[in-house]
Specification:
The complex is a heterodimer. By secondary structure, chain A is mainly alpha-helical. Chain A has helices at residues 4-15, 17-34, 77-84, 132-168, 170-183, 188-197, 205-218, 222-236, 239-247, 251-268, 271-288, 299-308, 314-341, and strands at 46-49, 52-54, 90-92. Chain A has 2 domains: 4-33 and 134-347, Orthogonal Bundle (MetI-like fold), CATH 1.10.3720.10; 42-93, no CATH class. Chain B is α+β, with helices and mostly antiparallel strands. Chain B folds into 3 domains: 31-264, 3-Layer(aba) Sandwich (D-Maltodextrin-Binding Protein, domain 2); 308-331 and 586-594 and 605-638, no CATH class; 347-582, Dipeptide-binding Protein, Domain 3 (Dipeptide-binding Protein, domain 3, Roll), CATH 3.10.105.10. In chain B, 30% of the residues lie in helices and 17% in strands. Chain B is built from 19 helices and 28 strands. The chains are: A mainly alpha, B alpha+beta. The A-B interface holds A 59-61, 63, 71-74, 101-103, 105, 108-112, 127-129, 197, 200-202, 204, 289, 293-295, 307-312 and B 293-294, 313-314, 317-319, 377-379, 381, 409, 413, 424, 426-428, 441, 443, 447, 450-451, 453-455, 457-458, 461-464, 468-473, 476.
Chain lengths: 351, 646
């Protein structure tokens, strides 16, 4: 895959500083959110209780009775830490010691409270006193994972079908083109709303997210096939494909070894924009109330809360909007850089 | 060729047939007088035509005229109020599909007149369309003399015939309203016309409040519904039915999708009547469609809307706090009014027909694992009170000592373990020996209470109980419970100002299953859930059924109170309802040009506008807006009216 030409393109991408740094930041962000439980969680990183060490972050919950408390539900590590003061026992909390789901109201009233260092609510709390940073963090994680999975699926299906259409042509192409024309005329957002509103809540949250993903992929793969089809048609008629065929290469080999590497450069330029549209779509769905089921943290839900409390709690909308802007800007910068560095016109004399 | 001709002939014959029958239908629907008369003739037991002389002589006639006035004598007429509608009404009809929406109070419930109305302070009846009435408990009959001045808004007089026609109307299938068909078909047994302004109506049981069954009836204008027929729903969709009340809607004031305006009748027949003269003071009420509540609030703050409900804590404390410049400057007044009336039943309705939920210990455990007190204290900021039973607010009929089960993890745990759930899974949720998780769907159609449910969810986790929250839109949520497909549902039934609570609808087994029990009283193994009924808990208990049946036919108030208490206890014991919260007041923000009577409002009012006792001073509006611009303050007004607090 890494032909000298590709290497050259990658080098050019690195030279476009804005896109390159955006890429580094986003990659860093992905790594950070992946190990998010170590940074944002209501579970302690390490608990040393009576000479024994516990690492509660991943794994089963610890009831209060594990640490000498008189209840059977999950221990409140922040309170536990306070009760340890002055004893041999100690624990270490993550930098943001809140889960995205718990209601933590220092004043005893569930209402939005502004950013506070003392309470470690660095971006404040939302209308039911949940930590906004924690909700943003996990909301972003879900949005990023979701859009990556979306991208992989859409490209997988789009490339396979588009390539087949272009390579085999004829009746196969004709039929599929008509099917795609019909299919792509179904309004995507309405379909998601309709399908998602009939899914019963008995499914767990991850299952519901998977269903949402499936529905969105089902209605989004079509646009990819157009590019693949034309590119494959173009490459198919080139001399090197003809010679490969004369040598006796199989269809699989021709597609995988010769055509795909040559058309991929076009596709790569679309990737970041697909991600942008996926993030926007899931945020919009949440904003409208058709996305992830409550109380799943999500950017759209925060935006909705923010717009309803513009006057009294501007920090909600600022955080959610800020995150969305940063995220989308980063991806767009990467997209621009990729497009520029993969631009085939660079290699031609025609300008 | 022959075939084609034949088909052509058949086709044209069929077309002719079609036009024929539709023409016939049209003609018939032009005037239904003969249809109505023959309906009366077919049901002589129900519709009786008598003569003035046949009216019993020894009746005691009531007029209700000794009751105090309603509203304030200071009220002045005039001005326009601007208010908000959350959605444009789907129809102007007052019955039939889509008619029971949030707009209907403006054309029916709060505005149009009944024979008599319950006095909002005294609970007894004051006259509306009736001039006087007499009650004969022995024959279960109410005699009514209509006010001879009573007029429809189009000038036609209100007569006994409009009440005869009312029964035809509500019993007919044209209106596509099964509830009305049932109610007007079973709750009344006879109407007798003595003359144009005198009639009597008979009810099947002499309940303590049998007078309300009759006196709270509203007539239907027979002359307007001459074309009542199969096409009722479409024909009358956007026609404003003549009203007996003070406000009508003119055709040019219907701006579809945007606004609708009520106009006060200049020569309203009741404008000088004792109980009506100080009310309905505004010349016009313009209702603008604004869907989003935060937007409504912004419009209110600009003065585009005159009043705004501040019942939600976030609006009362945060969005319009006491130190808000408009409140400080006295431009906007904040008012809390404590009222007395039956409370809507906000709570968790547990479907006891579902697996696991059919175990009483699990239901009791869920009661103990639901932390309503935390919601009330921390989310509603202590303003609301915990609901005690599902029939609070009915005075003597409400149980006075019963209290709801408190949030108690230990007790919840005991009951869950009795039902086999004693071990916790890796995420803290209880599981039984078969590996079943203690996990239920908690659904609701109330978007605005989403936060409440997430708080309950987090708290229930402590007891090892999982609520999976399902947010539905209003219609879908209601459909779900009507089809009994819910595990646990958060909802409330709206309740009318009535003397005593109803139990049959919500707790009788006939509303839970098609045949709940066999002849000998055992549980019928083949019973099937009954859909489209209000027994959301699928409660089926022979004891309860017996009490309800007694209660329905009981004619002694004393006995009914005793029965009501026993049923409430039985319901509490069954534990299929987690009582939520009650709000025993309403709160309001209004611009200072909106004026209210001295005591603000009446004891049984459900909201500030219900009795239309407020008025608007348009001069003061100009002055206030000008002074607000130049920064001249008025006296601050944050008032609490707790004369009716309990």
């Amino acid at each position: 895959m890494l032909t000298p030409q590709t290497l050259k393109k990658l080098r050019r991408f690195r030279d476009i500083k804005r896109g390159y740094y955006s890429f580094l930041i986003l990659a860093g962000l992905l790594i950070i959110v992946t190990m998010g439980e170590l940074l944002v969680s209501d579970r302690a990183l390490v608990v040393s209780y009576e000479g024994e060490l516990f690492f509660p972050t991943y794994g089963d919950f610890h009831p209060g009775s594990d640490f000498g408390l008189d209840y059977e539900y999950e221990v409140n590590y922040r309170d536990l830490g306070r009760s340890f003061e002055g004893s041999e026992n100690w624990l270490l909390m993550p930098p943001v010691p809140y889960s995205p789901l718990e209601n933590h109201a220092p004043s005893g009233i569930f209402k939005p409270v502004g950013p506070s260092l003392a309470e470690q609510h660095y971006l404040g709390t939302d209308t039911t006193s949940r930590d906004i940073l924690a909700r943003l963090f996990y909301g972003t994680r879900i949005a990023l994972y979701f859009s990556l999975a979306f991208m992989v699926c859409v490209y997988g299906i789009g490339i396979a079908i588009g390539c087949a259409m272009g390579y085999f042509g004829g009746v196969f192409d004709l039929i599929f083109q008509r099917l795609i024309e019909i299919w792509s005329n179904i309004p995507f957002l309405y379909m998601v709303i309709i399908v998602f509103s009939v899914i019963p809540a008995t499914f767990s949250v991850p299952v519901r997210i998977m269903i949402l993903l499936t529905v969105m992929v089902l209605f989004s793969w079509t646009s990819m096939t157009y590019y693949m089809r034309t590119e494959t048609y173009k490459e198919k008629t080139r001399d090197y494909i003809a010679s490969a065929r004369i040598i006796g290469a199989s269809n699989t080999r021709i597609i995988l070894r010769h055509i795909l590497p040559n058309v991929l450069s076009t596709l790569v330029t679309f990737v970041p924009f697909t991600i942008v549209s996926a993030i926007t779509a899931i945020t919009a769905l949440d904003f409208l109330g058709f996305g992830l089921p409550p109380p799943t943290p999500s950017l759209g839900e925060l935006l909705k809360q923010g717009t309803a409390n513009l006057r009294t709690a501007p920090w909600i909308v600022t955080s959610a909007f800020g995150t969305l802007v940063i995220l989308l800007t980063l991806v767009t910068f990467i997209g621009e850089a990729v497009r520029e560095s993969f631009d085939p016109k660079k290699f031609t004399i025609y300008r | 060729m022959h075939n084609q001709v034949l088909i052509f002939l058949l086709l044209s014959l069929w077309l002719i047939g079609c036009s024929d029958s539709s023409e016939q239908l049209d003609k018939a629907s032009q005037d239904n007088t003969s249809e109505v008369n023959s309906y009366y003739a077919e049901n002589p037991d129900f519709f009786t035509f008598s003569a003035k002389e046949a009216l019993p002589q020894n009746l005691t006639w009531h007029t209700g005229m000794d009751l105090p006035d309603i509203g304030s004598t200071l009220a002045i007429k005039g001005g326009t109020e601007y208010a908000r509608l959350d959605d444009f009404p789907r129809t102007l009809r007052v019955v039939g599909p889509d008619s029971n929406g949030s707009f209907r109070p403006y054309i029916l419930d709060d505005v149009s007149m009944q024979l008599a109305h319950r006095h909002p302070d005294e609970f007894v009846f004051y006259p509306g369309l009736a001039d006087s009435w007499a009650i004969d408990r022995a024959t279960k009959t109410i005699y009514v003399k209509l006010d001879t001045n009573a007029r429809w808004s189009d000038g036609a007089p209100v007569t006994s015939d409009d009440f005869m026609f009312m029964f035809f109307f509500f019993q007919s299938s044209y209106i596509v309203a099964p509830w009305y068909n049932n109610w007007y078909g079973t709750q009344y047994t006879n109407i007798t016309r003595f003359d144009e302004h005198t009639f009597s109506i008979t009810v099947p049981d002499a309940k303590p409040d049998m007078d309300s069954r009759v006196l709270e009836l509203r007539p239907i204008p027979q002359h307007f519904f001459k074309q009542l027929g199969e096409d009722y729903v479409e024909r009358y969709q956007w026609k404003f039915q003549p009203t007996t009340g003070a406000y009508m809607i003119r055709d040019e004031d219907i701006k579809k999708g945007r606004s609708i305006t009520l106009t006060r009748l200049e020569n309203w027949w009741a404008k000088d009547k004792k109980f009506w003269r100080n009310r309905f003071n505004l010349d016009r009420i313009q209702l603008n469609v604004i869907r989003d509540t935060p937007k409504v609030f912004e419009a209110f703050k600009r003065g585009d809307i005159d009043q705004f409900s501040l019942s939600l804590a976030e609006y009362w404390y945060d969005k319009l706090p006491n130190d808000d410049p408009d409140v400080q400057g006295g431009y906007i007044h904040k008012t809390t009014f404590y009222n007395q009336r039956p409370r809507p039943t906000y709570g968790l309705w547990i479907n006891s027909a579902r697996p696991l939920l059919d175990t009483k210990d699990i239901r009791i455990g869920i009661n103990h694992a639901t932390n309503w007190q935390l919601v009330i204290d921390n989310y509603f900021r202590g303003d609301y009170a915990r609901m005690r039973t599902s029939s609070d607010g009915y005075g003597e009929f409400s149980h006075s000592t019963l209290s709801p089960r408190s949030f108690d993890i230990a007790l919840a745990g005991q009951h869950f373990s009795k039902a086999g759930f004693s071990k916790r899974a890796a995420d803290g949720i209880l599981v039984n020996k078969e590996g079943q998780r203690l996990s239920f769907t908690l659904s609701t159609g109330y978007e605005s209470y989403k936060d409440v449910l997430t708080i309950l969810k987090e708290e229930a986790l402590k007891a090892g109980l999982e609520f999976r929250i399902e947010m539905l839109d209003g219609t879908a949520g209601w459909k779900k419970v009507q089809e009994k497909k819910h595990d646990i549902h958060f909802a409330a039934f709206g309740v009318n100002l009535e003397m005593y609570p109803r139990y049959w609808e919500t707790y009788h087994s006939v509303n839970a299953y098609d045949a709940a029990f066999t002849e000998d009283g055992a549980v019928n193994p083949e019973r099937r859930l009954k859909t489209q009924s209000n027994n959301l808990e699928s409660m089926a208990s022979l004891d309860m059924d017996r009490l309800i049946d007694q209660y329905r036919i009981s004619e002694s108030k004393h006995q009914m109170i005793d029965l009501a208490h026993r049923m409430t206890e039985l319901h509490h014991e069954y534990a299929s309802f987690v009582p939520g919260f009650v709000q025993d007041f309403y709160r309001l923000g209004h611009w200072r040009w909106v004026k209210y009577p001295d005591g603000f409002n009446h004891k049984h009012s459900s909201d500030a506008q219900e009795f239309h006792v407020h008025w608007i001073d348009m001069d003061e509006k100009q002055e206030t807006l000008a002074n607000r611009k130049s920064g001249v303050p008025y006296a601050q007004a944050i008032n609490v009216y707790d004369q009716f607090a309990q």
